[in-house]
Amino acid sequence: MSQIPADLKYAKSHEWTRLLPDGTVEIGITDHAQAALGDLVFVDVPEVGRTLAAGEGCAVVESVKAASDVYAPIAGTVVASNTALGSAPELVNQDCYGQGWMLRLRPESPTALDALLDAGSYGAQLAASGG
Amino acid sequence: MGMVPVPPFFGLAEAPTGKVTGMGRKTPLYDLHLASGARTVDFGGWDMPVNYGSQIEEHHRVRRDAGMFDVSHMCVVDLRGPGARPFLARLLANDVGKLRAAGKALYSCMLAEDGGILDDLIVYFMDEAWFRVVVNAGTRDKDLAWMRARAAEWHAAVDIIERSDLAVVAVQGPQARARVADLLDADGADRAAALALEPFAARECGAWFVARTGYTGEDGFEVMLPAAEAEPFWQALAAAGVAPCGLGARDTLRLEAGMSLYGSDMDESRHPLESGLAWTVAFDPPERDFVGRRALEAHRATGVPMKSVGLVLEDRGVLRGHQKVRLSETDAAAAPDAVEGEVTSGTFSPTLQRSIALARVPRAATGSVLVDVRGKWLPARVVKPPFVRHGRPLIDL
């Protein structure tokens, strides 16, 4: 069974978002996504300062099985990216909601997260797709 | 996240259908796999474990110690009767005439008349009235129908018996043989005989069939045993420290070992001479008239424009099946008419920590080629497989 923390919000395309106290938003991929990909061997994260539109490709994860784009769930500017993943991509498999975070955005709109799925809705989406 | 829909480590013939697993055929070990936390996929109509957590850890266990694979989806076929040897001599591109010592095994392609590869298989010679063949899961029905049709056509005195009553467990790695041997019997006779098996040889140990063969580039055994005995055998191996490994690790291991996968590196539209399998075709003796011989001789006479090579990617990124391959500028200048090649199977090599691949490329390819990796033409070095054998890298990095 996939872990779906209740305090996060989710994109249909299997990214999670966490609102941090400073108003920035941390982004990574979900437990379902990392399990479906299998062991990650490369993770490319975006450069700090890059501006992203909602739905724009912002990172690439490549596993033993498949390559995949990670999409920005909301629009914003990259304020940090997890460069540790360059040499330790397995952190995403081991701790996708913690040390496996990929980037932090300053959101363009403070209400952008409202449009995303809550844990219950994301879980229902996984259940409906057989995941 | 936009995931590539088909995990590329599956051959075309055995590509997952995307349907929810739980609906396919199940091996005798299926429940045990689920209880061990296996993630399963549809593989050639079978629900099979792809990993039990980490594919890369499973890979390393096989290279460094011992791992076990449930390969009961593979199809064991016994050919019994005095006509078995002449039947196989005509059916297979490699020559069973090489099999003289009881228990010896031979790798071969089974070809169509046009030289296309129907399947690749292993044949074990047990006695003059018994040869055992193991074919791929995804080609089971096609292969059995082909064999039976040829046997009828040639009036061969051979019975073709599918052994779906058997489970097959591959135990691979430097410690694999010792771990299996300890479980074989109490009095030690089978144990000693199994340990004395030469590479690529098999013997019966009671109702079990123990073969020193595999698909990983490591030493080990493949054990065929009655389905009901599979679960206790698996559990005893686990208790002895043998790691359960899924088909994911099996694929990275075989690719490092430079071994071809049916449906990816070869299929019915390809012949062995352009698939890196010329070494498995026995043109001698010239009077042996095997299926596909005339087509292959015609290819030989006109020249084969493509060859199969190994590739090592120098950059970050992962080579994957169906990526396009172009000659380097130097090679292209010398061979302006060369067509595009293709990666036939590619992966990330856990041992080399680089991406490696098998590719079908124009014969003119020499030192390096260019591969279209997600829209960028990256240079890849042309090498001669295997990449890794017996735990050791064979490629300079």
Seen as an oligomer or otherwise, the chain set is heterodimer
The radius of gyration over CA of chain B amounts to: 21 Å
| Total of domains of chain B | 2
Mean pLDDT of chain A: 95
Describe the model:
The complex is a heterodimer of chains A (131) and B (397). By secondary structure, chain A is α+β, with helices and mostly antiparallel strands. Helix content of chain A is 17%, strand content 32%. Chain A has one domain (9-128): RNA polymerase II/Efflux pump adaptor protein, barrel-sandwich hybrid domain (OB fold (Dihydrolipoamide Acetyltransferase, E2P), Beta Barrel). Chain A is built from three helices and nine strands; from the N terminus they run βββαβββββαβα. In chain A, strand 6 (57-63) and strand 7 (67-71) form a beta hairpin. The longest helix of chain A is centred in the C-terminal third of the chain and has 10 residues, at 119-128. With 397 residues, chain B is of the alpha+beta class. Chain B has two domains: 1-303, Gyrase A, domain 2 (2-Layer Sandwich); 305-393, Aminomethyltransferase beta-barrel domains (Elongation Factor Tu (Ef-tu), domain 3), CATH 2.40.30. Chain B is built from ten helices and 22 strands. Chain B has helices at residues 30-35, 55-64, 84-91, 140-153, 176-181, 189-195, 227-239, 247-256, 293-302, 329-334; strands at 2-3, 39-43, 46-51, 67-70, 75-80, 105-111, 117-127, 130-135, 159-162, 166-172, 202-205, 208-211, 220-226, 243-244, 306-313, 324-327, 341-349, 354-362, 368-373, 376-383, 388-389, 392-393. Chain B has a six-stranded mixed β-sheet with strand order 11-12-13-10-4-14. The longest helix of chain B is centred in the middle third of the chain and has 14 residues, at 140-153. The model of chain B is unreliable at 3-19 (pLDDT under 50). Chain A binds chain B through residues 13-15, 29, 33, 35-39, 41-42, 44, 57, 60-62, 64-71, 90, 93, 130, and chain B through 1-4, 7-9, 20, 39, 50-51, 54-56, 248, 252, 316-318, 320, 347-348, 350, 374.
